[in-house]
Amino acid sequence: MKRRTLSRNIAAIVSVVLLMGLTGCKNASKTEEPAPENTSVEAAEETDKQTDKQTSEGPITIGLVCPVTGNLAEYGKAFQVAAQIACDEINAAGGIGGREITFTVGDSKSDPTEGTETARKMVANEDVVAVIGDYSSSGCMAAAPVYEEAKLVQFSPTCNHGDFGPMGPYQFGIMGVSTDVAPYIVKSIVADYLGASSMALLYTNNETGNTSLECCTQACEERGLELTISEPFNAGDSDFVATLNKIRQTNPEVLVACGSGEDYVKIKQQAVQMGWDIEIVGQGIYSNQTITLGGDAVEGALTTTPFIITGDRQDQLDFAKTYEEIAEMPATVHVFNVYDSFMIMAEALRACGDKIRRETVRDALGAIDYYEGISGNLSFTENGDVHREYATIAIENGEWKMVVDFSGEVVEPYVKD
Length: 417
Known about the structure:
Layout: H1 10-20, H2 41-55, E1 60-66, H3 73-92, E2 101-107, H4 112-124, E3 128-132, H5 137-150, E4 154-156, E5 171-173, H6 178-193, E6 198-204, H7 207-223, E7 226-233, H8 241-248, E8 254-258, H9 261-273, E9 279-283, H10 288-294, E10 302-305, H11 314-327, H12 333-351, H13 358-366, E11 370-373, E12 376-379, E13 391-396, E14 399-404
Parallel strand pairs: 1-2, 1-3, 3-4, 4-5, 6-7, 6-8, 8-9
Antiparallel strand pairs: 10-13, 11-12, 13-14
């Protein structure tokens, strides 16, 4: 597949988004075991009904699952704006064989229980031929069995858990896998960039956090770093003082905090209030929310990302400008991934020809092994996910800046305040 350039009429997009309220409108060679023959007349009739519904003329509907409400609602808004831009561009270019592509939104609230219920609603909606979402790894993995049973694709732009893709042939993702992220943080940021010989880990007690614990522990052993202590916390916790005091007693040179941008801000602010001058590296904090909530307290914060705008690709700059005009917040890796997810989905839908239904969409996605997107060049694995290269970024003067590029070259040397 070839990379597409973005040429949009910003005013027209803004009008469409405002009118529709944002509610309208991993990977290759993943093989599926043949399903057992179903002799049920009722099942056959239901399949025929679904096939007729999904291959008829008219709009092609994609489910978009994201946290519209809750403490991660910022990401839900970002998902919807990026989806609208992608759908508008696809439709302006003739749609899918002349048919319009549209999306219907489901609110997962970034809660696995809510996300699973939302998955059931998507499955029950006969118009939905595939789902793009959810935002969190825990939400995606909780909902995966629902999608697998119904044979409905769940294609996540942001889930990076290494066990997500292998959960079944209908699970896909393009964020990369967390089993690559944590080792990068330990080896490339803590050891190489900061020059530290010891670290502590504070991690969310969920699927992503537990994976980070396992990977950080192994990476420390491989690199010869001392992991002085590892402490879990629950999503939504607000008081970290006791935990930080416990960690402080182990005297680490660096603290790695695995959680959301909101979690990082609370941890950083409370460490400052305690008078603890320690470098805190974040995992999963690349978001404008981190800067907005943290202000001066998060200046200098370090993390990693598989994508950041470098200014040498016009399609990235055009998309970012369009997105920021509508969303009124900076474009991050998440929205570029949502856009690419819709574009990859469009390629799969075109490959289905006039046989667009849930099973054929899965097969078409599974046949894609490479895609040149605005979020980067994506090479898919047999498990339905991708391995990506990473860079180190830092908050400087209220903006995310690259300090170590994707090749490992240091752009801005570390200087401790």
